[in-house]
Design brief:
By secondary structure, the chain is an alpha+beta fold. The chain is built from 7 helices and 5 strands, in the order E-H-H-E-E-H-H-H-E-H-E-H. It is globular. The termini are close together.
Length: 148
């Protein structure tokens, strides 16, 4: 697990379409968190209107507390298959930006089952903000992905 100073914040978000059960979406989101944080109300809901006037609910959490960041990042890396961590590492430019952000897209349906795997289809988005003062950001990201 990396030190909390290397990752400054985590943002986790997803949308729920009108056809989705909000309880199941919340359950899927909770599976991205370690047991110690699952009972806490981390996610806020926003109600918006879609392109065809359909109701959409967005769920968002922003975590900045170092102890919670350490717990979540350690949990995510332990749950994410090594093959997928290697895939992100090989294609780091597709999963990061010049601002020190590492982006993961987690399969919402699999998360509901307690399985953390990547997917671009209707994902839960996870953004890890790395400190730009802790060294070269790409090196920090690679070290993070290799840990666990």
């Amino acid at each position: 697990m990396k030190t909390p100073q290397q990752i400054q914040s985590i943002e986790i978000s997803t949308i729920a379409h009108s056809t989705e059960d909000l309880g199941k979406v919340e359950a899927a989101l909770s599976h991205l968190l370690p047991d110690s944080l699952r009972g806490r109300q981390l996610f806020t809901r926003s109600y918006v209107e879609g392109h065809y006037n359909n109701p959409i609910v967005t769920f968002t959490a922003r975590i900045t507390k170092p102890s919670e960041i350490a717990q979540i990042t350690g949990f995510l890396m332990n749950q994410l298959p090594k093959s997928e961590r290697l895939l992100i590492q090989r294609n780091l430019s597709l999963h990061s930006d010049g601002e020190g952000n590492l982006f993961l897209r987690v399969d919402k349906q699999q998360a509901l089952r307690g399985i953390i795997t990547l997917s671009d289809v209707d994902p839960i988005r996870v953004k890890l903000k790395f400190s730009r003062f802790g060294g070269r950001v790409t090196d920090l990201m690679i070290n993070y992905l290799e840990s666990s």
